[in-house]
Inverse folding.
């Protein structure tokens, strides 16, 4: 597995973690600033890339507009999954698949408590249309993949990957 600096882990002890050690999972959650949020849509599963604002106390904090399809989906079902991929060279990456639930935070005073200080004027304007999505993990499945880039050029149907070799 990848060598990651060992630090204190803030993931809850009751989270089931399979694959990589908890400190490696937590290092990725602290350092990778984008993920994919997967939820149940009205007719099909719905998946959207998200920016991560913060990772704090074992929770992933994202932001969203209060309106839209994503928020409609989350208001009807807070059970979601979150996926991370961390690439560190041409042949190695780590996948994290987290299962859990979203808490939607919409009141400006509650958003302020979570985010802390800042410009009150700017914050009050943003808080009118902004919601925080606090992801609380329940399970984490992870794996490290070691596959040289040249391996992909040998797959059936792959063309024009000379630069990958």
């Amino acid at each position: 597995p990848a060598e990651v600096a060992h630090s204190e882990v803030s993931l809850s002890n009751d989270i089931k973690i399979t694959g990589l050690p908890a400190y490696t999972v937590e290092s990725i959650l602290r350092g990778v600033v984008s993920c994919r949020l997967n939820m149940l849509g009205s007719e099909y599963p719905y998946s959207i890339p998200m920016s991560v604002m913060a990772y704090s106390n074992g929770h992933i904090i994202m932001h969203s507009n209060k309106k839209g399809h994503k928020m409609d989906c989350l208001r009807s079902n807070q059970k979601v999954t979150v996926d991370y991929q961390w690439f560190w060279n041409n042949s190695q990456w780590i996948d994290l698949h987290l299962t859990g639930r979203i808490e939607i935070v919409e009141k400006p005073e509650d958003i302020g408590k979570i985010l802390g200080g800042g410009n009150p004027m700017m914050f009050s304007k943003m808080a009118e249309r902004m919601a925080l999505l606090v992801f609380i993990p329940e399970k984490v499945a992870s794996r490290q993949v070691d596959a040289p880039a040249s391996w992909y050029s040998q797959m059936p149907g792959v063309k024009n990957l000379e630069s990958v070799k």
About this structure: The mean pLDDT is 83. The CA atoms of residues 18 and 141 lie 5 Å apart. The longest helix spans residues 22-31. The helical segments are 22-31, 69-76, 108-115, 120-129, 149-152.
